[in-house]
Structures are given as structure tokens and as C-alpha cells.
Specification:
Blueprint: E1 7-12, E2 16-22, E3 28-35, H1 41-59, E4 69-74, E5 77-78, E6 85-86, H2 98-106, E7 110-114, H3 115-126, E8 134-140, E9 144-150, E10 153-154, H4 191-195, H5 197-208, H6 214-222, H7 226-250, E11 254-258, H8 265-275, E12 288-290, H9 297-303
Parallel strand pairs: 1-4, 4-7, 8-11, 11-12
Antiparallel strand pairs: 1-2, 2-3, 5-6, 8-9, 9-10
Helix pairs in contact: 1-2, 3-9, 5-7, 6-7, 7-8
The structure holds zinc ion.
Length: 310
Amino acid sequence: MSERTLRIGIDLGGTKIAGIALAPDGTTRAEARVPTPRGDYAGTLDSIAGLVAALESEAGAQGADIPASVGIGMPGAVSRHNGLIKNANSVWLNGRPFAQDLAARLARPVRVENDANCLAVSEAVDGAGAGEEIVWAVILGTGVGSGIALRGQALTGRNAIAGEWGHNPLPWPRDDERPGPACYCGRHGCIETWLSGPGLAADHFSQTGERQAGEQIVAAALTGEPGAAATMARYLDRLARGLAHVVNVIDPDVIVLGGGLSRIASVVAALPEKIAPHVFSDAFDTPVRASLHGDASGVRGAAWLWGPES
Ligand SMILES: [Zn+2]
């Protein structure tokens, strides 16, 4: 039996489309990126097809017995109800049969998954959660979301929303956290409104009157500036509650953090002991780690949507 020699992963973002070609052992054979043709559905299909051809050419994979597999990671999801894209912030894809159109264009099946699920798969296959059965990957950036990999495969869920965590309410809220900030989704007090970079900045402003970006607050806290340190303490407490709530449901083997705020080592290190009091268990020894592949986890996870057995 011939073995697949190349896996191509595409990370479809709002400003750029990144692609990678992985050898069977996970080493990178080719990489490329192009700007996202915003608002242009046909142009997006063209760009991805061009990227796939370029990656195959650079990796020398044309004419292989089994063509390179193609996986796509993107914000949003494929509706299991009708096969159309939903919840994408690249809004020109919503309501489109994107996976089918791309499969026809590339003359092969494609797998499309939410980008947070791709992070989880990437880290589960050969990243910070390598070999673990249940990997919960959390993105803390401009937005907040998460994905779950079960034995190295994305857990999609019946409604294709498994891991959608950012628009659950902040758990165990204190009186001064209710009803919480208004969220674009129409609710109040969503986890994203507290734990995203903009959420961190808004909380800092509400308590200190200072308008600072998330990175500035983090830097000031590291120098011991009291207002910023207090903001980071509130942030960590809220993040720990948000994480504990899900630990009580899926009890992951490892929690992997991605996104800008995951790069702060002191945040990652402080979490286990802050999560523990909220977990309904006599013991809590779940590791919390920063993602190993960082920004490359999106493309790598998309490539690994086609696992060793597929
Ligand atoms: Zn919301």
C-alpha cells in the first residue's frame, strides 16, 4: 500500500492565507502565504488553489501515487446541517458551500475545521500535548475560543460548536462582575469580554482610568506597577475560573494555551494553583502549557486534520 507523502495545511485568516506542506514525520517541506482577498469568495478559492499548487510544486509532490491531502483551518465552522460555512468572521464565506467548492476545485476531498480545533490537533499530534488523549487548547488573543482534540482528532460536535467557550458567561461571578460588559454577540459578561486582550484593557480602564493596551498592562505588571499588577491578578483569577469550569466537564489531560497572552510565562505558571480550588476533585494535577508551535499551530493542525490513518 502506498503511503501519503505530503499533508498540506491552510490557515485562512482575515488578512492572510498561510500554507504549509508537512512530510509524514511532521517536518516542513514547504511554506507560503498570500494576502486574503477580502470580500471575494471566488478570489479566496483561487488563492487557496494557487497556494496548494505552489506548495506541491515546491515540495516536489506532483504525480505522487496519493495526492497531497488538504486541510483548512478558519474561524467559523462547516454546518453539519447543510454543509455551509457559519460563524466565520471572514463573512464573505458564510452561507457558502466552501468545502465542496474547494474539493471540486482541487479534485480531492478537503477537511475544514475551526481554527481553535486546528490548534488543539496540532498540539496533540506533536506539540505541547503530544500523545495525550484529551487536549484542550485555549486561544487568548484579540478573541477567545477553544478547541478539543480527542486522541489527536478534532472534536467537532453535533452542531460543530464543540469548544466554543468564549461566549459562555464568566463562571462563579462576583457581585461586581454582574452583569458584565456587553458583548457583540448580544449577551453580557461573556468570557471573551473579560479574557481577550481588549477585555483586559477595558477592565484596566474601568478600574484605573488609564487607557493602555493589553501588552502595556502586562509589561507594567511585570515591573511591579500596582495598578497593572492588580489588573493582572483579576485577569488570572477570572481565567482560572473560566478554565476550571470546563475542567469539571471534560477533565482534559493537558490545557494548552495559544494566542498573545499565552506568551506570558508568569500567566501560564500561575494557573494550576489558581484553577485547583474551583475543580470538583480531591486532586488536580493537570498541566497547563503554552503552545509549542505558536502561530504555526493553525497551519500545522490544518495539515494534521488528515491523520496517519486517513
Ligand atoms: Zn458574547
